[in-house]
Structure formats: structure tokens, C-alpha cells
Amino acid sequence: MQLDDEHKRILDGGRGKILQAALTDLFKYGKAMGADRFIPITSAHTSFMPMARMAACFPPRRVRLTREDVDRFTREMAGLRVPVKTSINPGVLDMEKWQRMGADQETYDAVIEADGIARGCGILPTYSCTPYISENIPIQGETCAWAETSACLYANSMLGARSNRESFETALYSAFLGITPNFGMHLDENRKGTHLIDVRCEIDGISDWGALGFFTGEKVGLGIPVFNRLRRPTVEEAKQLAICINVPGSTTLFHIPGVTPEATTLEAAFGENAPRETFVFDEEAKQATYAKLNHEPEGKVDLVFLGCPHATLYEIKEVCRLLEGRRVARGTALWVMTSHATRAAACRAGYGRIIEESGGELFADGCLGMYYLYYPLERPALGRVATNAGKQAFTVRRSFGSNVFFGDEKRCIDIAVQGGN
Question: How many helices (H) and strands (E) does the chain have?
Fold first, then answer.
């Protein structure tokens, strides 16, 4: 890999230990992936969690860091500034409603400390998995370094931006250095389709788009799917498609001919490639995918969870349309998750009041899995969960052993009101 004089100065420690460690790892990463050089970025999307977890991304890399290690890292981090637009993935808790989520004071204090450090570094405190909705929106051809299950895939596919699917560590390194290794999705030849998904059934509603995504991810793995006979999705449908592809799969780009920027036609989507395989998504395949994501859907439901990826203002409006004048059943919780920016707009429109008066919660800045997988918070009962989100249908089953109902938002709201299915 080619290095310029500034890169060499950073590797020699000329700009501090944190940037030295970041570039050392980014250089190793680039070499392993066959990159020839670094290229400048204009946008990054990463995570920024409590400092003890952030410090683990940098030397000394030990299973357990001392308080002295964390304090030293925090002091060094506080002196850095990101040179590019950088947004943050969902965090650990809702900083306004943290007690209602079961967080303790120690966890809240650690989140507030990290939030202050991030702001001081010039990082946008977005705490959202959908930065492409309002806070960090790249345009076609823009070079980025993005992490997150759906964000990178959406940005590459729907917006025509260019990012590899980064880990939060490599995205963080790139954010502070303003560069990323030149390989993968940054090269034209790697952005052509590899597999054809022939859609031969009606796709109607968020959960159908999630089912299509889950089916696709299982089939193509690391490949680049091209969808045939698929109508133009809304933003809400496209983000559900993107996130569900990357639950069983790990891809960075899809094409919908006539919709996505780099696929004006089916032929343009594949370029000189011939499809390696063709998979048919028909009614039978759709129902089989629903069956795979549903586990004992009948019975009392403890939690109805909507907002993965984070709900848009339109999705929150739709929840309110289905919920207004009704009441969430006793013993069942209804959580709608979004970013704090979208929640502010929703509350101004009166949607937050409708949800809360119905007995639900409009939470911000988090992710159902983040709270309870990484921190010892008091979580709600999760024996049976209902959701319209394919990722959560898969994740809560795997992580918490929950029995899951997966279906459209109308069914989910009905379940919340009835207390079960």
C-alpha cells in the first residue's frame, strides 16, 4: 500500500498515540483486503459508546482495562477532532427516558460522559441507524466509511454513495483520519450484480419487504443481488429491505433496475457479468420466510416493538393512526424506537402524546439489542415479542430465546391492544 508523508508521520507517532494506533490498524486492514492506497472520505458513520468500550478499540488491547487505562484514553481522545462529517449509531439508552428503560445511574453517567467526548470531537450526536434520513446524507459517488447493518447498504444502493461495510472500529479510525483503504465498493468493477432475484408475488407492507430481504440475504451471502419485477420502494420499505438482507447475509449493494442510481436497466445492473444464480421469490417462498421468522405466534405477547431500523416520521404517524383512541393491554408493552431528531418532530406533531396516552412509549437513540446485550439493565419481559422488523424477529429469538410474532404493523398494533395474538 502506498503511503504519503503525512501517513508516515502519523505512523511514527507524530500526531499522537490514538491516530498512530488508528492508522496502524487501518493500514493492516487495507493490506489484508488488497487495497493499493488510501483515499479521502467526506462522511463516516460509526458507534461511540461509553469510554471503557471505546478504549478497547485501541492499545493496550486487554480483556480487562484498568481505570487508569480508560482515563488516559479519555484524556487523549478529548484532544481530537474529526475532519469529516461523522454521525453515530444508536447508543445504549434514551438519554431523556433512561430510567423508564431500566437503566441505572452508573450506565447513564457513562453514556453522558461519552456523549460529551463525542461532541467535543466534532461528532454529530445523532444516535441513529438511519443517518441517511436526515442527518448524514451522501450523494451519488461520495466516498464514505460507514458501519451498521442497513446504513451502508442503503447508502450504496439507494443513494449511489461508496462505502465498504465497515466495522464500527474501522469507521471510527476513518472518521478521525479522513481516509479509507481503496478496495471493494470504492472500485467500479466491484459494483455490478452477481445474483438475480426474480420477484413473482405481491410485496405489500413493511414486513413483506423484510421477508424479501431475509430470503435474499440467505441466498446471496456476500453477493450483490439484482431484483427483477420489483416495484419502486418507499424510503421506509427500502430501509427494511436493506436491513433484512444483512441479517443472514453480508452484502454492501443491491440493484433495482430503473430505481437505484447505478442500474438504469437490468443489463446495466450486471454489466458484463452473467448472473451466477437466479432465485425466485414467489408466494410460496414468501410464506416460507414468514414461517421461518415466526415462533409460536399465538398467545400473550409481552412486548410489541416497532422501529428497526429507526422509525421515520411517516411510520410514527401510521402507528398513531392505528393506535389513536385505543389502549395498550395491561401486561403488554408497546415500544416505538426512533432518533431524537425524529422524536422531536413527532412530539411537535402530537404523535408522541397519542402513543403515550395509549400506554405505549416513543423511545429515542437506542436499539432493543444494544440495551440488553451489552449492559446489565433491567429489561422488560421478552417471553413473547411481536414486531414488523425482520432483524428483530431474528435477533430477539437468538439473543433472548423469545417466541416471536413477525407481521405487518397493523397486526402488531392489534396485538398490543389485545395483549396477544
Answer: 18, 13
